[in-house]
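[INFO] parsing input record for Tubulin delta chain
[DEBUG] input buffer:
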Amino acid sequence: MSIVTVQLGQCGNQIGHEVFNTICSDVRDTHGLCSKKENESYRDACKERFFCEEQSEVPVARAVLVDMEPKVISQTLSMAARSGYWKYDDGSHFCQKQGSGNNWANGYSVHGPRHKEVIMNLVQKEAEKCDRLGGFFTIMSMAGGTGSGLGAFVTQCLRDAFPTSFLLNHVIWPYSTGEVIVQNYNSVLTLSHLYKSADALLVHENDVVHKICAQLMNIKQISFRDINQVIAHQLGSVFQPTYTAEGGLHYSRNPLGDLMETLVPHPEFKMLGLRNIPQMPENSLAYSTFSWPGLIKHLRQMLIANAKMEEGIDWQVQPPRLGSSIPSNHSTNKPLHFNTSIANLVILRGKDMPSVDLGSFRDPSLYTSWLNPEDAFHSWKTLRAFNKYEKSASLVSNSQFLLKPLDNVVGKAWNMFASKAYIHQYTKFGIEEEDFLDSFTALEQVICSYTSL
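[DEBUG] output buffer:
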């Protein structure tokens, strides 16, 4: 089944371009571990998901690009075409001359309704090109105006127009130090609206990815493109073809549906996090060796200690004992935060993969009590390596990983709201104080639900 990607705003378009670049680069690599037939099967499954082919035989991304300013879209179209390996459809983008000024209300209440028809027509045309539509993957930020405001509006339109299709939102969490003064307002409004429309939200935190670039990738002067490439690598590690059943003979045909079935057992819990291991500069790969037991051990500890990368993991955090709800540091008796999961998916790619023991992820103490551990953990696998990594593992988790950042954002936004700070910038575009209160209430419920795990 095919996925239509909807790239929204500057952030969404730049990340979307890197995602297609990563996927196309991975497909072009021929891995000796796999037979010619298996490499061809992998390539065909990938192309069906993300590309269609025109008479030129250059793969065309199944994507719609939307921004209220033309510069980024123009650059994105040009870079893709210059690669010579793939491109965007010349008619699948929409832009205007004026942005949303980092104002969520402007994107949601003004640009959204004004341009709804033309944007949804582009989406409809892209959907009709698919022999089998698997759903939509939107990419957007939370902090700005177009990506967040218009993105929330378009997501709502997608749900209305395609009620039976799967809808996954990829959301970029802003830097905690602040990108724009009203980013917490924009974030609260975005998340509360997406929670109503999307089947799941896959979140990347800018602070975390920045650390990965600095500490794992050894990048001295970190650019947005560096950050976007790390995000694209992680997304590709999830969305490239895998076998979803033991001993599978065919690659999964419905990636979004499989992801939702595996990780979202209840509509109250839609927040998904992503960890990938190993991650390092390409020029270091030739001098590095990895064992599956080591990778799995680190990935499991990253999960339970809520570590976002493999450096700096707190190895003292352990699952609670039977009859105990709060794990503690035995040397100090201080409580340690254990990251309780609802559901986890481990994706393994590379050599010697069939021998990997994933029993440690089936430990019932990792999970909430209301879901059977057999239903809470799944694994997808393929012998085909990904993006030049001989062995790699990814973890997509529905867990408490975002509780602290979410609570911080809601708290900061509420403090501003209580002081009536900048509210007039939203009310002039039709967003009333009641809309803010509804958004706060919705996210407080999300926080409460995840806390109760």
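[INFO] Residues 14 and 224 are 9 Å apart (CA to CA).
[INFO] shutting down worker
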